[in-house]
Amino acid sequence: MEEREGSKAADSSTSKVSKTASSSTPTKLKIKLATKKKIKTPASEEHSNKDAAASSTVKKKKRKAEDKGNKSVKKLKSESSSHSMGSSPSLNSKARVSALLDRPVHMHRPDTPPLDVGSVSQTLKDKKIEPSKLKFGFLGLGIMGSGIVKNLLNSGHSVLVWNRSAEKCGDFVAVGAKEAMTPSDVIASSDITFSCVSDPQVAKNMVFGNCGVLQEMTSDKGYVEMTGIDAETSQDLSEAMNERGGRYLEAQIQGSRIQAESGTLVILASGDRTLFDDCQSCFQAMGKNSFFLGEVGNASKMNLVVQVMAGVTLAGLAEGMALADRAGLQQKDVLEIMELTSLACPLIIDKTKAIIEGGFTTHQALQHMQKDLRLGLAMGDGLELPLPLTATTNELYKHAKRLGYGEHDVSSVYIRTRF
Q1: What angle, 0 to 180 degrees and rounded to 10, lies between the N-to-C axes of helices 331-338 and 346-357?
Q2: How many Å apart are CA 214 and CA 245, to the nearest integer?
Q3: pLDDT tens-place string over residues 366-408
Q4: CB-based burial label for 382 (10 Å; 0-12, 13-18, 19+)
Q5: What's the pLDDT score for residue 96?
Q6: Which of its termini does the chain have fewer beta carbons within 10 Å around, N or C?
Q7: Average pLDDT in the 146-153 region?
Q8: How far apart are CA 105 and CA 123, in angstroms?
Q9: Beta carbons within 8 Å of 364's beta carbon, 6+ residues apart
Q10: Any idea which fold 122-295 has?
C-alpha cells in the first residue's frame, strides 16, 4: 500500500512538473505586420493615371487588331464563297484596281513633228505682207521661235538667227537665214532683235550674260522680248536697254506651236511705240492681231492674266475627263457632246482630243504653263490678291512636272488627275 501510495505521489508530482514545464514554454503567436499605407501625391496619381491610360490603349489596339483580322478573314471567306458560287466582283472595283495597275510610271514623249521651213501657209499668202527693209535678228529656235522665224523668212524678211544648240539653225540657213555665233553678234548685225527663250532667268542671261545683248546695244538698236516673263523682269530689261540708248518692247504671244507655224498668234505689246510701229510687218507675219498696251509691264501682266485663265480651265478639263473615265463613260462621247455646247472652243476641243489620243505631243509645254501660273501667283501676292484656284492648279502642274511630264504637252496634266 505504501509502495502504491508512494508511486501515486511520484506520478502526481511528475505530472505537476510536466504541467509546470509546459506552462513555462512560450507559445508561438502568428503576428500579422501592418503594411505601410501609400501616401498619394499629385505626381504619383498622375503617373498611375498615365500607366492606366497606356494599358487601356494597348488593350484597345489589341482588340482592334483582332477585330480587323476577324473581319479580313470573314471578307476572304465571303469572297471565296462568292467565287465558288460563280459571282464576280463589281465592275467599279475592277475599274479602280485596273486604274491603279495601269498607272504609267513615265510616258515617253512623242517627238515634235519636223517643221517644214520652206512651206508657205495659205494664211500667210492671203496676208500679202510687204516686208520691212530693216535687218532683223532672232534669238532662240524652240517650238515657238521656229514657227515665228519660218513665217518671217517666208514673208521676205532678212533674218539673222542664233540658238544655243547650233544644229537647229541649219534648216533656216538653207532657206535664206544667216547664222550668228553669239547673241551679241546678232545685235551688232541687226537693227531689231527678237528674243524668244524658255523663262525669265534665261531671258536675263541673254541680255546680261557673257557675249550678251548689252555688249552691242546702241542708240540705233531695238530689242523685242517675246519670252513669257513677269513685269519686274521686263522693267529690268527695259532700264538696261535705255541706259545704252536702245529701244525696248515687250511682245508677249498668245498661242501654241500650231498658231506659231500658221502665223495666227495674238501679240500683246507694250513699251516703245516707235519700235512697235517698226515691227508691224513682222507682227503681221507672226500673228493675226497685235495690241499695243502702253507702258512696259502691261503686256506681261495681260499675258499672265490670260495664262492663269487657260491653266485653270485645262486643269478642270483634265479632272472632268478623269471623272468620266472612272465612271465608265466613253471619252469620245464626252467630246461629241462638248462640241455641241458652249464649251466648244479651240483650246478645249484640241486638248480633249489630245487626252483621248494619249500621246501628248508638245504644242505648249506643261512646264511653261506651270511657270506662268507661278508668275501669276507672284503677281497676285504683290497685289495682296488671293488666288486659291490658281494656287491649287499650280500644285497639280508641279506634281505632273515632278512625275516627268514637264516637256510634254500641257494636256498631260490629265495623268496627274486620273491616277
Answers
A1: 170
A2: 11
A3: 999 999 999 999 999 999 999 999 999 999 999 999 999 999 9
A4: exposed
A5: 52
A6: N
A7: 98
A8: 41
A9: 143, 256, 257, 409, 410
A10: Rossmann fold (3.40.50)
- Looking at residue 105, its pLDDT comes to 56
Domain parsing of the chain, residue ranges: 122-295, 303-418
Cell numbers given for 160: 539673222
Query: Is 74 strand, coil or helix?
Result: helix
Are the CB atoms for 271 and 238 separated by under 8 Å? Answer: yes
Phi and psi at residue 128, in whole multiples of 5°?
50, 60
If phi > 0 it is left, if psi is from -120 to 50 it is alpha, else beta; for residue 215 that is alpha
With contact defined as beta carbons under 8 Å apart, do 211 and 183 qualify? Answer: yes
51: pLDDT strictly greater than 70:
no
Which among 355, 322, 362, 320 is positioned nearest to 341, based on CA atoms?
A: 320
Share of the chain above pLDDT 90, in %: 71
The rounded distance, in Å, linking the Cα atoms of 66 and 268 is 67
| Nearest CA among 243, 198, 236, 184 for reference residue 219 | 243
How high is the pLDDT of residue 112?
79
Alpha carbons 277 and 32: distance in angstroms, whole number: 114
303-418: CATH number: 1.10.1040.10
Q: What is the pLDDT of residues 286-335, one digit of tens each?
A: 999 999 999 999 999 999 999 999 999 999 999 999 999 999 999 999 99
Look up residue 142 and give its three cell numbers: 524652240
Q: Which helix (H) or strand (E) holds 287?
A: strand 287-292
In the predicted model, what is the mean pLDDT of residues 92-104? 53
Q: Is 31 left (phi over 0), alpha (psi -120 to 50) or beta?
A: beta
DSSP string, 94-107: HHHHHHHHT--S--
Whether the CA torsion 272, 279, 362, 332 is positive or negative: it is positive
Quickly list DSSP for 166-223: GGGGHHHHHTT-EE-SSHHHHHHH-SEEEE--SSHHHHHHHHHSTT-GGGG--TT-EE
Is the pLDDT at 110 greater than 60, yes or no? yes
In the chain, the amino acid numbered 307 is Q
